[in-house]
Specification:
Globin-like; about 0% strand; single chain
Length: about 140
């Protein structure tokens, strides 16, 4: 039975939950809200460092629900950000976990990027990595 009455909505909710479950498993968490904050903050940090065309190509491969919060607050005219360091990138995720000081934001970023590597096409991941500043590329494993 459908939860929303529209299969397209039910499917995107199901896919989003799969993504959140994968993040929780990688981080050994049992809190879906934390996983959502991790995904949202990491996607925003990534999006804001990509040229608009590349950011849109990534969005096309996200579940519809994730795509919605990915685009939330986006200002393509001011992207890509000039931030060049891992610390700059990670600071955006750290901000999302300011009330959770025991969490290592770089660990969170790496876990979310690992999930993206599993869920997004290899070609798109390669394109993203190519346009990222060299030292930020090291956040991606593999």
């Amino acid at each position: 039975m459908s939860n929303t009455g529209l299969s397209v909505f039910d499917e995107t909710i199901q896919l989003t939950n799969i993504w959140l479950n994968d993040i929780m498993a990688r981080l050994d968490w049992d809190d879906r809200h934390r996983a959502y904050r991790a995904l949202r903050a990491t996607l925003h940090a990534l999006r804001d460092r990509l040229p608009p065309n590349e950011a849109s190509q990534l969005a096309a491969q996200l579940p519809m629900l994730v795509r919605g919060f990915y685009y939330e607050g986006w200002r393509p005219a001011v992207t890509p950000s000039k931030d060049r360091t891992i610390a700059d990138f990670v600071s955006h995720v750290e901000e999302a976990f300011s009330r959770d000081p025991d969490e290592n934001p770089e660990r969170v970023v790496r876990a979310v990027l690992d999930v993206l590597r599993d869920k997004i096409s290899e070609g798109e991941i390669e394109d993203i990595i190519k346009v990222m500043p060299e030292n930020i590329r090291t956040l991606w494993r593999g």
